[in-house]
Amino acid sequence: MTDRPVSEGREASTDPPSAPAPTPRGLSRRTFLTGAGTVAAGGVAAGGILEGRADAGPRRAGGARRVEGLVEVTLTINGKKRKAMVEPRTTLLSTLRHHLAEPLTGTKEVCDRGNCGACTVMVDGRPVYSCLQLAVRCEGHEITTVEGLGSPEAQSDVQEAFAACDGQMCGFCTPGFVVSTTACLERHPGVDRETIRRELSGNLCRCGTYPHVFEAAERARDARAKKEGGR
User: What is the model's pTM?
Assistant: First the structure.
């Protein structure tokens, strides 16, 4: 499974950005062949994912399965089994939002390129970009979306902290930040501000509310510590 670009102990890069490569003015033979090779490699990878599935279609000569049509996936989302019919190339993000009988739209589709973190969910307790996960690869794993953390009537400690600290503005990035913050606090109890900044570095807020987000993370951390101390 592909993790987010920054995952376990993730750190923001301190290297200066490299200068962009010049854009070619035409489609060269080398560019065409490179692109064609990439597409072919993607087809091989998809075939490997579906190897052994009874509904993946007939085998071609040489034993490889033809990848086409729809396949049924059974995903464990927020503790419940959910079924969906998707193409093998369908991402987890698209499946959550568009292919479930009861869609889960709390996971936001913003950049759809693994750059912003708005689509962050937890898979087996680790934050991942759902726009970079194939739904067929997520079978057998525990998926947690922002809906699985709490509701407007029964918010989690992190959700309450975000509301109290005004840790949102336009709101598109907020679900991803809530999920990432929850994962951070579960993996690092008693976390300090620097670790919070590092753990949330895979999420972007275009409105610039980072100080409020970090304050909310610390508030939730302190609430958890107080609750644990009172037991």
Answer: 0.72
